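Input record, target 12 of the design panel.
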């Protein structure tokens, strides 16, 4: 399966698929691919799917994602909501969760590498393709804890959002990536478009 095969994407060119932007800002777009620099250790590569305020052009992007190695359009299966507080929340199918986040960023990066290539198939139920960005970091110990704090993720404790690993489709490639999700969304409006925009 690739992104253009899905019924929800009527025109993949309009959504930015097939292009990628490397970070830091200032580098031009290239071709869609999921890659790392030859000098990057696979154990230190961590991929995070973002769908809200961490996306390019939104208020938390520069502060938390400026050190990203690359940023690429991607999709996941889920249900997207706009919360009355002014930011989004995502539900994902429990059956698609590959791993749960811990307090150890390096262990989570290693776990991501161990998963291999996950299957990206449509789950049973009223799930939709959620559009966002796949952000690749090369220093999980530096980059992940501030984002965990932003999202209210506390492993083993009460968390606003939980961090889990799911299959993400980037171009034609299925990749395991971390994502922040909310198991029970309250006081939110479902976004059938699968895209969250600032209000």
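The sequence produced for target 12 reads:
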């Amino acid at each position: 399966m690739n992104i253009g095969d899905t019924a929800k994407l009527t025109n993949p060119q309009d959504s930015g698929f097939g292009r990628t932007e490397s970070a830091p800002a200032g580098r031009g777009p290239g071709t869609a691919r999921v890659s790392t620099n030859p000098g990057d250790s696979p154990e230190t590569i961590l991929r995070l799917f973002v769908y809200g305020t961490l996306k390019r052009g939104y208020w938390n992007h520069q502060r938390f994602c400026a050190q990203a190695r690359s940023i690429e359009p991607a999709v996941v299966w889920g249900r997207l909501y706009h919360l009355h507080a002014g930011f989004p929340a995502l539900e994902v199918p429990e059956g698609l969760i590959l791993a749960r986040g811990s307090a150890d960023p390096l262990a989570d990066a290693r776990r991501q590498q161990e998963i291999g290539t996950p299957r990206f198939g449509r789950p049973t139920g009223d799930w939709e393709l959620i559009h966002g960005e796949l952000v690749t970091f090369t220093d999980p110990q530096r980059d992940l804890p501030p984002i965990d704090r932003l999202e209210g993720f506390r492993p083993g404790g009460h968390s606003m959002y939980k961090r889990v690993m799911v299959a993400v489709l980037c171009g034609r490639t299925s990749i395991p990536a971390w994502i922040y999700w909310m198991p029970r969304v309250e006081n939110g409006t479902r976004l059938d478009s699968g895209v969250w925009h600032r209000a």
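Strands lie at 19-22, 29-31, 46-50, 70-83, 88-91, 99-100, 128-137, 162-170, 173-181, 188-190.
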